[in-house]
Amino acid sequence: MPEPIAQRPDMAAYGVDTPDWEALPWSWARERLDGRNYWLATASADGRPHSLPVWGVWSEEDHRFCFSCAPTARKARNLAANPQVVVAIDDTVECISIEGVASRLDPDGDADRIDTWIERYLTKYRPMAPDLGAPFLRRNLVFEVTPERALAVIEREDEFAARATRWVW
After folding, report:
1. Phi/psi at 60 (nearest 5 deg)?
2. Does domain 5-168 have CATH number 2.30.110.10?
């Protein structure tokens, strides 16, 4: 899958219109998307926000993010009504967030896709959670996030204005 297109974000009020601006490479973002914890932000049909940390997997092969949650979770209810989502890494200095659309994978129609994500998830998290298994994940809902854009900033004075980057797919 081709890499997203890097752009200068519209952040002139924060000094990002500097002539020495240089886009961060997608490889910078990709490294950070392999972290352990992510913040997931959803909103209900009436716009009430909700955000909690989740475990999940970024696939560079697919340019997709996947996570699971209980069928009764507020995030599941929110996504059923409003599929817009933001996924952010848990680093507040070298930050990246992805805006996109979350789709619930159907256990009947998307079984192979779910199997692929579960394998990726277990490969990533089983070393720190040895009791984690596919049956637990299959009891939950599996969501795949298709990104539309991502925003990265580095919260260091010498890099913020010169390196803030937006990517679009």
Report:
1. -70, -30
2. yes
